[in-house]
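#structure-requests
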Amino acid sequence: MNSFSFYNPTQIVFGAGSLSKLSLHIPKNQPILLMYGGGSIKQNGIYQQVINALNGHQYIEFSGVEPNPTYENLMQAVELCRQNRIGFILAVGGGSVIDGAKFVAAAVHYTNDPWEILETQGRHIKTVIPFGVVLTLPATGSEMNSGSVISRKSSQEKRFFSHRQAFPQFSILDPNVTASLPTKQIANGIVDAYVHVLEQYVVSSNETSPIQDGFAETLLKTLYRVGPLLMKNPEQTDLSEEWMWASTLALNGLIGSGVPQDWSTHMIGHELTALFDINHARTLAIILPGVWQVMFEQKQKKLAQYGRTVLHLEGTEQEVAEQAIELTEQFFHSMGILTRIDDYSEKCYLVWDIPKRFKERNWMLGELQNIDHLKVEEILKLRL
């Protein structure tokens, strides 16, 4: 295991009924911006519970944060915060709303063009407005990390930033809120979290890290088991509890501490979202098998470990590694997720812009930084 520094200041308030404790965590005497997405929280009762918790507070609302939050829309929230001297942001939603809140919180007092926050991955941020979270869709882990992914419509780009100050102060994780989620969102949430773990686990390394591997394998086994069950029984609270906590642990920094991390699937997937507006989780399901196939030689050992430990496969190392790729794609299919680019768009020719972009940006991907634009092209060819 490599040396590392682990820092995570987010307070987690977890369990059925924990939403009722929200009022205990909202700061007093601060103008609040309440951020959320569409109207679903008004239909399932979450909105009214939040409004009740805000009773006696000065607050304004900003709704309409998109599933892939855009810079253009979020800048309206930034201006709203500046005009109303907002001192705290409450994000009620899934990863998109939380990511949007992080950007707004970082951009309000940023003196230059706020797009620089994304271009520099947050390096020049000085002040972030405090914010808290009510999680409504487990998936991204954004409720307990400092990262945010934002799209820009005008240039069809999707960029990431992270900053030490961009952790939520608190996150309310109440599994009761997932009972009314449509199966499409459950599928997206399970697959998103599953690939988050795999990006930190199936890597090219001879180093041994049994503790981190054990954490990762437990999360993978949990998500692999509860995913199909939740699709049939979305109101089963004990399943929702496992899903919610596994998704949070999948990307709160713990399992990635001291080990190599890949993230090439995410970087390529972000481009698919920018070009075709495909849901983030579905881009991951499209790209991951291709990454594993193209980089098979260097990932074979870890793929075999994954196949034997999580998927209970038997055979030679090569056989198990190959079966693991096939069975993972079958798992995505079992969640109702299609895994080819042409399943989502008739304009597949646009994918060839992706390797060009990576070449122009001089981007090298993967835990060994050896996936260049030519390998990205190979991966995309396999996923058409």
